[in-house]
Amino acid sequence: MAESDIIKNIVSTETGGAAKSILGEAPTLDTSLIRNLPPPRSLLVVILRVFFGLILLAGISSFLFFTSQLTSDLDFATSRLKIQNVSENLASTNAEIISLQTDLNFYRYLKLNAFFDTFSSDGDSFLHYLETTNSQTSGEAEKEDALLEISSLKQSLSTSISNIQQIFTEEFTAPLIDKEFSDGADLSALYKEKLIMKLNEKIASVSNSADSQARRDFKNFTQISDLVKNTGLRNLFLSIDFTALSNQEIYDFIKNVNSVIINDLTIIQKIKEQRIKWSDMIDEIALRTMTIDRHYNQNFYDDLGGIRYTSYNFNSGSKTISISGETKKFDTMNFTMIVDLIDELNKSKFFKDAAVRSLSKAGSVKDGYTSSLQLSLTLEDEEAPNNLTE
Q1: What is the pTM of this model?
Q2: End-to-end CA distance of the chain
Q3: What stretch of H or E contains 145?
Q4: Domains of the chain
Q5: Residue 140: pLDDT above 90?
Q6: Model confidence over 62-71: pLDDT tens digits?
Q7: For residues 148-179, b (16+ Cβ closer than 10 Å) or e, as one string?
Q8: Dihedral of alpha carbons 379, 382, 385, 389, sign
Q9: Are the C-beta atoms of residues 113 and 147 closer than 8 Å to each other?
């Protein structure tokens, strides 16, 4: 029973109310004595506070500055305070650079177009005179005159080419303050695009005008636009050493240039190249006929006989020539002369398939025997490039 009482006392003690503190309740502090005392001052704390304050101020200022300079978010404030926006200034500067360089390029191409006109004019004459020196139908005096003209034209062509090369070696771009155009190719494409836009504006401004000067301007601006778009023309001229070229190489160079540029003179030259030169054909026929009849075209036909042509019929569509005429011989050898004439015409580089369509002979030993002559000739393809006629 005693043990049971002890356990009951232990249980009642643990489950009973809180035991009384041995030391009693904690004393209450009176803070009224230290409430008005300032904290101890430290120089380090002051410095840190000032430092962090400055950092915060600088951060806010930097944010506001770059926002005002690189965006338009604060334009309402910067415009009142008359603070300039750097990004807008850079954009304005770039636009001004592009405009000035485009104007410069425009006037350069105006000069280029004029130099190309001079080159084409002299080049056309050079082609003519060099062809004259190589022509089988040209006389010696004519060839000598042509050589003199070629010598003079070479000097003029050299001057034109030098002027063109000088312009092509100039810089057609200007650097911009923009990372987007740090690549030279992109920059070149930009200025080329701006120049074409300017030319298109010029073309549009005169396209509907009936004024003669406006029509000339329209043609010039259109030709210049073609020059700008012609990327190979610059390399063609810069790669040439004109002084080292032979006459034939100059001839080939002019032909090459005429194939890649378009102006009035090159258009005329292309038309000329497409024409069949019937006058050369007639001269060639005369030379070949003289080989068979040494008195041809000397007014000895009635007395000595020979060959006489009465008409020519040129067909540019089929590139054929039909010749009517007659032969006269006092020894009845008319047909032999005609056969020799056909063989001689077929030897020419101008003709092929020479043939006689009909033959007839009449006369006497006293008056001579005459044979009618109906010849047909076909032009060689390289001598007759097109269906146009002079």
Answers
A1: 0.55
A2: 155
A3: helix 140-168
A4: 93-274 (no CATH), 278-389 (3.30.1360.100)
A5: no
A6: 766 666 555 6
A7: ebbeebbebbeebbebbbeebeeebbeebeee
A8: negative
A9: no
